[in-house]
Write a structure and sequence with these properties.
Layout (H helix, E strand, L loop, with lengths): L16 H42 L13 H6 L3 H32 L5 H9 L6 H11 L8 H14 L15 E3 L5 E3 L8 E6 L15 H5 L7 E7 L23 E6 L2 E7 L5 E4 L8 E4 L19 H26 L3 H9 L4 H12 L1 H16 L3 H6 L5 H4 L2 H9 L6 H30 L1
Parallel strand pairs: 3-4
Antiparallel strand pairs: 1-2, 2-8, 4-7, 5-6, 5-8
Helix pairs in contact: 1-15, 3-8, 3-11, 4-8, 9-10, 11-15, 14-15
């Protein structure tokens, strides 16, 4: 007989009510979390996702938006010289501004730790962050004004220049047509007839307002009446204009003033043999001259226009000038972030290095900077993202004639779309290009943040 083996069936696993309850709680938690996040997701979709998708689609159509042109806008974008200038300027911004800001922020953060009023200093540097880009643009547009009476930077530059080089007191002075002085090719004035030793000359000029005369100027009548010795030439340079009217042109009248500080040269055969400067009454004298005739010359330096300073907003310097305004605003931001990282550094490592004989420069270069590497990277990448989107400062500070020389991708996108170009297809293509340039930096920053969280 064959024995039959019957396997005993295992009882079903008991159902634990706690497990089902926890799964229901997790599902309920997810639903509640989704409900809380939903408004933010809707807002994000309406303000970010939809505009991005719409811009990508719009970039494939012509200016009117009715005809599909494919990638024509993207090819046109890189054939347009102004767009290429915008790409070049954006590259300059991305390389220069974040590098300078990170370096300045690092240096200031290290130095601030060593001063007594660190908090007040940080507050002063961070204060520009409270100023809007519109207000900052207006401030620096005025500061960069080429007129020294308006622009504070040019006022300082002109003041320093004039302190070391000096400036002409008579930039608008000129002789009357019948005064016997002729203009030379180099801008100087010379007498038509020679003057011999023992002779005198009265060199009258006009074009100088009485209120612009130097404070030490004296009447020239007495100086004009003096006679010259046998081996000297005398003369006077005067303002041939009588305040209040009257007087005779070409004659030194009683109320006519001398022009002090005017340089006068005696020239023979094209060479300057003597030089002097007029006194307070405009008089001058050359002594010890050989016989023969001399031409009296008023060099061009007497009539040089005043130094007007630097054209900060000209085609050459407009981009560096705007970057300077950006540095003023964001230096405090970089300093505060790097200062926070500096405060978290392990002090025992710094003290150990000092005990081993390292100086402050070695500690800064080999310990502080490497330990601050993650913070410096975050600050740099954040600033890169920010400068790619800069618009306000460029649009406000750059004058109209040099707007194309200072343009960046953000301003070019606006100008092409709404600022007169009216080509929203090309403007959308520029917007897509700007997005593609920003995305890698954003992804890098997010990954860096996640690694630091772990």
């Amino acid at each position: 007989m064959t024995a039959t083996v019957v396997k005993e069936a295992k009882p079903p696993a008991p159902v634990h009510p706690d497990g089902a309850r926890s799964r229901r709680a997790r599902r309920r938690g997810r639903v509640i979390a989704l409900l809380f996040v939903l408004p933010a997701l809707l807002l994000l979709g309406a303000l970010v996702v939809y505009p991005v998708l719409f811009s990508v689609g719009r970039s494939l159509f012509d200016a009117s938006g009715s005809q599909f042109v494919g990638a024509d806008n993207y090819t046109e974008m890189f054939r347009d010289p102004t767009t290429l200038t915008a790409v070049r300027n954006t590259a300059i911004w991305v390389v220069v501004a974040p590098t300078l800001l990170t370096g300045l922020g690092l240096i200031l953060a290290v130095l601030v730790e060593k001063i007594r009023w660190a908090t007040a200093f940080k507050l002063l540097l961070f204060m520009p962050m409270a100023v809007s880009f519109l207000a900052a643009g207006i401030i620096f547009r005025l500061a960069y004004d080429e007129d020294p009476d308006k622009g504070v930077l040019n006022a300082a530059v002109v003041g320093v220049h004039d302190a070391f080089t000096g400036t002409s007191s008579y930039p608008d002075a000129r002789p009357r047509d019948d005064e016997g002085l002729t203009r030379q090719p180099d801008g100087s004035y010379a007498t038509g007839a020679d003057v011999s030793p023992g002779g005198t000359a009265a060199l009258g000029l006009v074009g100088v307002a009485p209120k612009d005369l130097p404070g030490d100027a004296e009447p020239a009548r007495e100086a004009a009446a003096r006679t010259a010795g046998a081996d000297e030439v005398r003369g006077v340079v005067y303002l041939d204009f009588t305040p209040g009217g009257g007087g005779e042109p070409g004659v030194v009248d009683d109320r006519e003033s001398g022009l002090p500080g005017m340089k006068v040269e005696a020239v023979r055969d094209g060479k300057t043999v003597a030089s002097t400067t007029t006194a307070a009454d405009g008089s001058f004298r050359f002594t010890g001259l050989d016989g023969g005739g001399y031409t009296l010359k008023l060099p061009a330096d007497n009539f040089a226009p005043p130094y007007e300073g630097i054209s900060w907003l000209g085609p050459t310097l407009v981009t560096p000038a705007i970057i300077g305004a950006y540095l003023w605003i964001w230096t405090g931001f970089a300093m505060v972030l790097i200062g926070a990282g500096l405060a978290a550094l392990p002090r025992d490592a710094l003290e150990a290095a000092r005990m081993d004989g390292a100086n402050e420069w070695q500690i800064f270069r080999k310990i502080t900077v490497p330990l601050l590497g993650p913070v410096l990277t975050v600050v740099f990448v954040t600033l890169v993202i920010n400068v790619m989107k800069v618009f306000d400062l460029v649009y406000i500070i750059a004058p109209g004639p040099v707007q194309e020389d200072a343009t960046v991708l953000a301003t070019q996108m606006w100008l092409v779309s709404f600022g007169g170009g009216n080509d929203q297809g090309l403007g959308s293509a520029l917007g897509v290009l700007l997005l593609l340039l920003v995305i890698p930096a954003m992804v890098f920053n997010v990954r860096r943040f996640r690694r630091s969280q772990r």
